[in-house]
Sequence to fold (172 residues):
Amino acid sequence: MSKEIGLFYGSTTGNTESCAELIASHIGFDRVDLHELAADGLEQLAEYRYLILGIPTWDYGELQEDWSDVWAELDEIDLFGVKCALFGLGDQVGYGEWFLDAMGALHDKLVSRGAIMCGYWPIYGYNFEESKALNASQDYFVGLALDEDCQSELTADRITQWAPQVMEAFGL
Fold:
């Protein structure tokens, strides 16, 4: 491990990869190791004290295939005390009943492994029916919510606001 933050993501269409790269550029490529799950898997996940994980939601609330392939491996990784932030991609119009459900599932899995979650994001400015990616009070998403299908013009500004919040939560 050469850098302090591991950024792991799964990407089928390239949207999550582009967002991961934009997040890394805002934090600084000198501080972030990018890991595409399809190529790297999760082998290095436990080496980091700080994690940013990117997951798109597919179809009716399903995991993206790269995450699905490594899902069971997460049960074997001790993340006790690791600070972790999530970003998720979804389509709030076409799949508004399942908006960012995969991010919610990943959040719950990481909490069960002992991770300290941060980087929650307000629901203001989104129009969806339901989501499993909401906090208990349902006023925040459990990570940065991005919609490259319906709100791509807002992605850069959202990342610009979110990245410093995450770094502050990480204590970096």
In short: The mean pLDDT is 96. The longest strand covers residues 50-58.
